[in-house]
Design goal:
Order of helices and strands: HHHHHHHHHHHH
Strand content: under 5%
Number of strands: 0
Distance between the termini: 35 Å
Number of domains: 2
Structural class: mainly alpha
Oligomer: single chain
Length: 383
């Protein structure tokens, strides 16, 4: 005897269908987020999961901005040890502060850049790095505990559960990469490696974009990235490459020179694009001040041009609603980010503008992700 929920009575005017796999109905009592996300937007039962993922996105967004401020204030090397658990407690006594300061005085940054720094000045940079690390711990807790609860209670299963587990693993790896980055500046350098800085930033943005995509899957229905099409995916890739180039600008302190726009020392292409001190073109691309800044300028302009082209090319064919709104947001965010970048350069990277420029990069990535998801969902629905 087949259960009642698998038998469907034909509506008036419809031909009865044979029972079989193609006509079998889904048991509502066994539906999970994985089932819902593969077919339709989330219902009320999924709203807590969606809200949780959006909160995590907001926390990651804030983390990227805090990280930018930590870098701009040159605070990232102020804590010279990696203590994932006990490091959550800051110095609480004068003796503890003196011990922390003594460790900082052993590294090249203090000896070559900040010699003579007072304890009060050290505390100012310490707190930014401490907040950065503490916020990372809070993100881990805010992600791990609800993830475990939703998994145990059956709200997430299957594909979405595997995705979220993957995001959690990347988050754990990100913590280790953060320390790997800091360690690069404790022995032979006065700042962290630009390569490790770029790796740390890119992984943070991969985690952010993946979390946002998962939230949109649950909110509006699952969408395959491939269904977005070459244009939106290509633009998303261009945004990532531009952000990577920005990390190399920051890591090489390239924003503190050539503070004119659009020319660089009166030339469209800087004279020392290949840095004589470095010798090779490849090394100059990643470590030469002139090449790094020039490349970032070119990529930033390419993002604006591509954003306008994407909007012009898809604005009529995109479905009304979220897809069109997301497409319209892409060139707006890109143009605002370019303006912020130019202002930051001309004013020689003030901390407030530098932090706003880093936040702007995440906003461009957000707009690009929203547009790609909306178009992927719309194209997938037409199949």
């Amino acid at each position: 005897m087949r259960p009642a929920w698998t038998r469907v009575k034909p509506a008036c005017g419809e031909m009865p269908q044979r029972e079989g796999a193609a006509t079998r109905q889904i048991d509502p009592t066994r539906m999970t987020i994985a089932t819902l996300s593969s077919a339709a937007p989330a219902g009320r039962s999924n709203r807590p999961v969606v809200a949780w993922l959006f909160v995590c996105c907001a926390m990651i967004f804030a983390m990227v901005v805090i990280g930018g401020i930590t870098r701009l204030t040159e605070s990232g090397l102020s804590i010279t040890e990696w203590r994932p658990v006990t490091g959550a407690i800051p110095p609480l006594s004068e003796e503890a502060w003196q011990a922390e300061f003594a460790r900082y005085r052993q590294i090249p940054q203090y000896q070559q850049v900040n010699a003579g720094m007072t304890l009060a000045e050290f505390k100012a940079i310490f707190w930014w790095e401490y907040i950065h690390r503490l916020w990372g711990r809070l993100i881990g807790v805010a992600f791990a505990l609800p993830l475990a609860w939703f998994w145990i209670t059956g709200r997430i299963r299957g594909r979405i559960a595997r995705q979220l587990a993957g995001i959690f693993v990347l988050g754990a790896i990100q913590g280790a990469i953060g320390w790997w980055m800091v360690a690069s500046g404790l022995a032979d350098r006065v700042s962290v490696s630009p390569y490790r800085l770029a790796t740390h930033l890119v992984l943070a943005l991969v985690i952010y974009a993946w979390t946002l995509w998962a939230a949109l899957d649950l909110l509006r229905g699952a969408a395959r990235p491939a269904d977005a099409g070459a244009g939106p995916l290509g633009f998303l890739a261009l945004v990532f490459v531009t952000i990577v180039s920005g990390a190399f600008v920051a890591g090489n302190r390239a924003g503190l020179t050539y503070n004119t726009f659009p020319l660089m020392d009166g030339r469209l292409v800087p004279e020392f694009y290949v840095d004589p001190a470095l010798g090779s073109l490849m090394q100059s691309i990643f470590e030469g001040v002139a090449a790094v800044q020039f490349n970032h300028r070119v990529l930033a302009i390419a993002v604006v041009v591509s954003a306008l082209a994407l909007w012009l090319g898809r604005r009529r064919s995109a479905p009304a609603g979220l897809a069109r709104a997301a497409l319209a947001a892409v060139p707006i965010a890109a143009c605002a980010q370019l303006a912020l970048g130019i202002a930051t350069l001309l004013l020689v990277v003030p901390i407030a503008l530098g932090a706003a420029h880093q936040a702007g990069a995440v906003l461009v990535l957000t707009a690009a992700t929203l547009a790609a998801h909306a178009l992927a969902a719309a194209n997938g629905a037409r199949r």
